Amino acid sequence: MPAETTVIIKRKGQRPAEAFSKEKLHQSVVAATLSARAPEGQADNIAYAVTNYVLEWLESRPEVTSHDIRLVATRHLRAHHPDAAYLYEQHRTTL
Amino acid sequence: MDIASSLAIVTLAALIHASFQLSVSVLTLLSGHAIGAKHSQARIMRLTFGFVSGAGVMTLLGLSFISLILLHLFGNEAPEFVWAIACGLLIGVGLAVWFFYYRREKGTSLWIPRSFARHLSDRSKATKSGAEAFSLGLTSVISEILFIGAPMLISALVLIELPGHWQLVGIAIYAVVSLLTLFSVWVLIGSGHRLSSIQKWREDNKGFLQFASGGALAILGFFVYVCKILSDASGALL
Fold first, then answer.
1. How many Cα atoms occupy the beta-carbon half-sphere of A52 within 13 Å?
2. B46 with B125: CB under 8 angstroms?
3. Are B14 and B177 in contact (CB under 8 A)?
4. Which of A51, A52, B167, B202 has a CA-to-CA distance to B212 between 20 and 30 Å?
């Protein structure tokens, strides 16, 4: 099953569900990695690897929450750039 | 109360204000989004400086506004029941901060309505210009009013008793000292420090910050109560 057909439940259903967007995940990982002061090229490579990992994970799942995606992406991002993973994980709990 | 004691109270109240973390959280988010959006360092500094300036202006306006209202209501000396209410408020907010300031979860989430936190978080992401950052700074101080209201009130009560030029000095001291943490974070971001290390420090020390803020509020409330109400009462008896 292609990952693009997976439905993402956002904020425990408080916001409308939407289809998984590879670009959106890529951009959010790039932003977190750049925030950790990584160079642009490295940020892009890491985001590519993390996005591919999440795509594989999504293949057998028709419906997941945005929180699940954040957890899976963080787990993989931690292996590449722990500081970026920390910022990515903390994004919703900073305020 | 002499001028030195008055300014010392204003300084302690401003330090307590500085220890509150909502504005620091918004500044951290704002700079994170700005760095993540590949803005130049100069633009990041402009945005974050706009935010700090906004917070400073709103602090000045807030304290001046409360002082003006008290001055209109009570003249140069507020009655003792107002001091007693302000002291009770300080101690009450201090206890509330001990128990409720941070949410019991990972990160540095504060005990503010989630919809409100999301709004501030979304605004920090949408902020693109210095003017927007300035208004976000204004808003973040208003959002903190539940916590900073009590130290501002006690500072205003102290300030209205001072001669005119010392009132200005007191307001300036309050504004500068209350901005110390925001300035520190701004300097750290400007000097290229990683946001993750700033956020990690905040998370690791959140228990201490919570204890220190709550404790300092209660101590300030108790000190002013003894200084102002009990000493006046004992003076009247003697």
1. 6
2. no
3. yes
4. B167
Pairs of CB atoms within 8 A across A/B: 67
CA B48 to CA B35: how far, in whole Å?
A: 11
Calculate how close chain A gets to B234, using CA atoms only, in Å. 46
Name the residue range of residue A81's domain: 3-13+22-93
Higher pLDDT, A16 or B92: B92
Q: Name the nearest CA neighbour of B48 among B109, B120, B136.
A: B136
Residue-wise pLDDT tens digits, B136-182: 999 999 999 999 999 999 999 999 999 999 999 999 999 999 999 99
Q: Burial code of B42-76, b = ≥16 C-beta within 10 A, e = fewer?
A: eebbbbbbbbbbbbbebbbebbbebbeebeeeeee
Q: From the list B108, B120, B192, which residue is nearest A93 (CB)?
A: B108
Residue B105: band (very low, low, confident or very high) from pLDDT cuts 50, 70, 90: confident
